[in-house]
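All the exercises in this workshop are built on plain-text protein records. Sequence and backbone structure share a record, each on its own labelled line. The structure tokens are whole numbers drawn from a learned vocabulary of backbone shapes. The record below serves as our worked example for the rest of this section.
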Amino acid sequence: MTAASELLLAGGECADCREHAGERVIIAMPQGGSGPGGPSRKACLPCARVRARSVFAPDWLREDLAVIDAERAT
């Protein structure tokens, strides 16, 4: 099982709100046709939670946020 420490990334600019965040998570991993995709998109936790509620959000994003929330609840 993946630990929250493996899912949380160092601080930086949120891809959605453009504010500085102390910690971020990957919210999207662009795919390339026949070559490599672009860089992964990283967002602060509040923006990631909003994105996870979208029907277009990948299942793994909801799962990653659940792992982080479960570890922080203990």
